[in-house]
Design goal:
With 235 residues, the protein is α/β, with parallel strands linked by helices. The chain contains 8 helices and 12 strands. The chain folds into 2 domains: 126 residues, Response regulator (Rossmann fold); 98 residues, Arc Repressor Mutant, subunit A (Orthogonal Bundle). The structure holds calcium ion. Calcium ion binds next to loops.
């Protein structure tokens, strides 16, 4: 049996970008459908149900956020938004609304392929361990026992540190916005207190580093300036 090639819906109103991105994806073996505006995107979405969506935010008519909301009403299909300079607020809003990742224009094709591959891989791997255990490299978080270990040695975290790590690990590979992290860990009243995150992530980082003799977790947390944080895959 041959593996079905992944299908991608590309939504981009700029014709040159659309053609360049589409031909690059096709050259890598993806099946690509392209839409030039939000209405066309939603028609193709209904017809094709692609494996992944590359979604420009600034579109005539129904904009990228509108398309994303419609898609998220009934599917968890990975969505990578394409944002132009000056669309930082829209980018954060899109991530809050459930986009998986973003690419800031102009982006290189190598970076785009890496993000697409990672998003598709996460979908395939998302049959989560039924025990709920979250594991990245030598780091393990067991929610039933509220236990965090590195190489089987316990790492003692405060309740807030634990919750923060849990949200990030549950979304490994994805950007999680500061607003989402703050709401999840501190509650809605704290959604603007971005400096908390910097402090708490620093504490978690130090505690993990103390237990991580091989140093494999040193780059676990990536800050996404102006957006939030992402837990990186560790090999
Ligand atoms: Ca555009």
């Amino acid at each position: 049996m041959t593996e079905r090639r992944a299908s991608i819906l590309l939504v981009e109103d700029d014709e040159r970008t659309r053609q360049a991105v589409a031909s690059n994806l096709e050259a890598k073996g993806y099946g690509v459908r392209a839409a030039a505006d939000g209405e066309e995107a939603l028609v193709l979405w209904e017809l094709r149900r692609p494996d992944l969506i590359l979604l420009d935010l600034g579109l005539p008519g129904i904009d990228g956020i509108g398309v994303l909301r419609r898609v998220r009403r009934d599917a968890t299909t990975p969505v990578i938004v394409l944002s132009a300079r000056g669309e930082e607020r829209d980018k954060v809003e899109a991530l809050d609304e459930g986009a998986d990742d973003y690419l800031a224009k102009p982006f290189g094709m190598a970076e785009m392929h890496a993000r697409v591959r990672a998003a598709l891989r996460r979908t395939l791997a998302s049959e989560i361990d039924p025990s709920g255990v979250l594991q990245i490299g030598n780091l393990r978080l067991d929610p039933d026992r509220r236990l965090v270990t590195v190489d089987d040695a316990e790492v003692r975290l405060t309740p807030r540190e634990y919750e923060l790590l849990k949200v990030l690990l549950a979304n490994a590979g994805r950007v999680v916005t500061r607003g989402r992290l703050l709401r999840a860990v501190w509650g809605t009243a704290y959604a603007e207190e971005g400096h908390y995150l910097h402090v708490y992530i620093g504490q978690i980082r130090r505690k993990l580093a103390a237990a991580d003799r091989k140093g494999t977790l040193a780059d676990l947390f990536a800050a996404e300036p102006g957006v939030g944080y992402r837990v990186r895959a560790v090999s």
